[in-house]
Amino acid sequence: MYESSVVQHFFQQGIEQGLEQGLEQGLERGARESLIEGILEALDVRFNSGVSRTLHPVLESISDLEHLKVLRREAFQVQSLEAFAQTLAANGNGTEPAKKADTAA
User: Fold this and answer.
1) Residue 9 reports pLDDT greater than 90
2) DSSP string covering 18-35, please?
């Protein structure tokens, strides 16, 4: 009887831990999807173009939420869709945060 309650305790603990991990992963996935959609929407609205959808696979390859947040801000500030695409390309298809270049004119 004692053994089954110990097993049941660890089983329940495993279930709770699994649920917690699943929830965290789901929240992170939702945040990524929201950031990506926000980037694409900002580019579409600013540049009146559905072309930004071609950037979707590149954005999907980025797992770092902070990098996606930087790109979302960039989408609101960049001068052109091409400049945004260049920012992604300059960083190995967008897998690392962009480094700001000094633009002294």
Assistant:
1) no
2) HHHHHHHHHHHHHHHHHH
